[in-house]
Amino acid sequence: MKFDSSMYFITDSTNYSEEEFLYRVEQALMGGITLLQLREKDKSTREYMDLAEKVHTLTKKYNVPLIIDDRVDVALAIDAEGVHVGQSDMPVSIARKLMGDDKIVGATTKTVEQAVEAYAQGADYLGVGAIYPTTTKVKTVLTSTETLGNICSAVPIPVNAIGGLNKDNIDVLKGIPIAGICVVSAIMKADDPKQAAVELQARAKELGLC
Fold first, then answer.
1. What is the pLDDT along the chain (210 residues), one digit of tens a residue?
2. Residue 177: enclosing H or E segment and its boundaries?
3. Distance of CA 175 to the CA centre of its chain
4. Among 46, 58, 99, 104, which residue has the least CB neighbours within 10 Å?
5. Strands 82-85 and 180-183
6. Cβ count near 140 (within 10 Å)
7. Element housing 174 (H / E)
């Protein structure tokens, strides 16, 4: 499946009502994000599926692929466009086998070795980081921009930088041949998610990052 990971938005529903969360997701979509990952670490399977269905309705409206974090079962249940797995989640090879060849499988990697292995197992793209410390619940291990560049050179699939990125600090990525950037808080917690997405994309294009 073809996809554009240049402006990859990862959600965080913490402290939002469902109505406010879905509003922010749609605002981000209106702002031009190109790929959306629904990430829920604490919801039950049924709650995750219910929210995923609602988010999928929005992403289909804007023709943006929906990636489900971690949970292949949820991705399959709602027929999402893809799934993303981390180093402690299901191996990429198993996720690929379950999802099939026509779906997107992404993987989080922090080293060249992990990146090469993920590619060999069938990953379509990589999320590499964290470039900066993050405020999300995910355990943060920093990855240097040098390692990010080495990973881009080591695999022929799209590589996205992730971790604490916003329009004011992505200059550090200039000159590295990434496919795009992944953001959470820069859009999710913005006063105006739509405008935040527009400004972030404009800055990324200015720096040649997407």
1. 899 999 999 999 999 999 999 999 999 999 999 999 999 999 999 999 999 999 999 999 999 999 999 999 999 999 999 999 999 999 999 999 999 999 999 999 999 999 999 999 999 999 999 999 887 655 678 999 999 999 999 999 999 999 999 999 999 999 999 999 999 999 999 999 999 999 999 999 999 998
2. none
3. 21
4. 46
5. unpaired
6. 15
7. none
157 forms beta bridges with none
In angstroms, the CA 86 to CA 146 distance is 21
Q: How far apart are CA 52 and CA 70, in angstroms?
A: 13
Q: pTM of the prediction?
A: 0.96
Q: CA 62, 64, 70, 76 torsion: positive or negative? A: positive
Residue 152 is which amino acid? C
For the chain, the helix, strand and coil percentages under 3-state DSSP, each to the nearest 5 = 40, 15, 45
Q: What is the C-alpha R_g of the chain? A: 16
**46 DSSP 8-state letter:** H
